[in-house]
Amino acid sequence: MSIDLWMEGVIVEFKEGTPCDRAMIRSVGRSEVILADISNDQVLKMSVVSLDEVYFSGDARLLAESRDFGDLKFIDLTEKEQKETNRKYRYVKKLREYGVCKITEKSAGNIIREVSLEIGEKPPHWQSVRGWYKSFEKSGNKMRGLYPKHRFKGDREPKVNLKVLEIIRSAAKRYFSSSQPSMASIYRNVEEKIIAHNLDQPHDRLRVPNYHTVKSRVLESSYQKKQKARQGVRALQAELASSESGIETTRILERIEIDHTLLDIHVLHDDHKTLLGRPNITVLIDHYSHMVLGFQLSFEKPSFASVCIACINAFLPKAGFMKSLGSEANWPAHGIPMTLVTDNGNEFWGRNFSSVADEIGSIFQYCPIRKGNYKSRVERFFGIVNSMVLDDLPGVVRKAGKCGDTYDGRQEAKITFSEFKRYFVRWLTEIYHNMPLERSGMTPNELWLESEKDFPVPVEKEMELIPILMASGTRELGKGGIRIFSMNYNSNQLKDLYRRDGPGTVTIRYNPFDIGYILVRDEVNKTFLKIECENFEYASRLSTFEHDKIRALAKTIGKSKLDNLDLQKARVQLSK
């Protein structure tokens, strides 16, 4: 009885105001019910037995069961109900004006006819008017006593046979399971059980309900129970969790969130205008100000390298970066974070990244598994990018069913990678950072600059920070310098190193997204030397990904030339 009586989301009203006036049932256990006082949200606990006793003694009632209007006001009624209420009130008001309080045909008949003429309707029966008058007085001479009760008409008891109802509820348990059987399967199960009952007990035959009856009875349970059973507790928790993580910060750089996503847009090669594909973006965002601290765009899969290059962009001042893009916009964000929050991607595990965090002095914190709202800022930012940046650009990726059958984002792509990068930075610095936030009304720029007054951010030395965050390796130093990426790197400084130490293995640092230069460690002076590529014009700002694609294309073209028929004939003649 209690399991059916006490359901989540139902409000219980206590007659004596103990333990409170009204409380909503939050959860129901086998022996205990959790309630929340609707006036102050205070959590209350009552055993199922004691709650049953209070209810059946008449000291508590379920508002959902009552046939009154609860807290509904006149304005909450439908237009038809309001008109009917006003109509009744015209009769009651006129009777009160004449001082008639005992309604009979003799005392009220003429008054009723007078009002009906004013309204232009057939006079109601005097006994109906007497009922309206009594309801008006019973409600404390308030109009709510005249509200029409059509919505409460009908049989409140279930019309379905109780045995059939028991069979349906039993079958519903299978519906609320992680296997997620269909409603059609549940209906067949109910039908089969009723048929089996009728065969076993022909003297007590049950009528098979229709599909819609079974469905409505199965779905009587609360949404929480349905989702928990069919989708799982974690899915329900994620759904009920707000977009905010509940984590509070008080200043900039106190907490920085980092994550990647594959952007829903196709871009072209800068020079050849051929399709490159969809770039990945790695973003670091400040939890307090919502300011983007830095980012990295590339076509490689998220990796330790892409994270480190994004960190270089984030931790250093942006003046040089903005100048390289031809932008005069201000981007004040920079600095080493106190706490760096990441997900559980492979690129964040292992000694590499944890050692980087230790070296720069940040606390490294992993996001709990399947707790996306733990990184609420960066997750929300990705949603804003999709809706405000990508949706208007050519080449945007559309989900199936959200576009025409012939639409292909790859065919529509018109913007190059560099053009997209400049467009993104302009939107970021000129629009997003100047958008007022819902909670404070201040913009990310304003929050950052205001916090920086109280907590000034020191400028990091570039040549101290970059070697920590660049990829590391070893190469052989020879008289021709160092060879890596099938290219030569040399300089007068490196020749001085060779003259001093001779040939041998040296430690290098490199940026996989700009192979125009490498850093070579001078073991004697304990410092790094910047060595440029001999083909600097080609290699500057070129990524290893692009370099490998170009080499593969050049190899294919070279091979096709070697396969030329005239060239083959010439080689044969020369060999003879």
Automatic annotation (TrEMBL):
PROSITE patterns in UniProt: INTEGRASE
Name assigned to this protein: DDE-type integrase/transposase/recombinase
InterPro entries, per the entry: Integrase_cat-core (IPR001584), RNaseH-like_sf (IPR012337), RNaseH_sf (IPR036397), Transposase-like_Mu_C (IPR015378)
Domain Integrase catalytic stretches: 247-452
Superkingdom, natural source: Bacteria
Native source species: Litoribacillus peritrichatus
Alphabetical list of SUPFAM superfamilies matching this protein: Ribonuclease H-like (SSF53098)
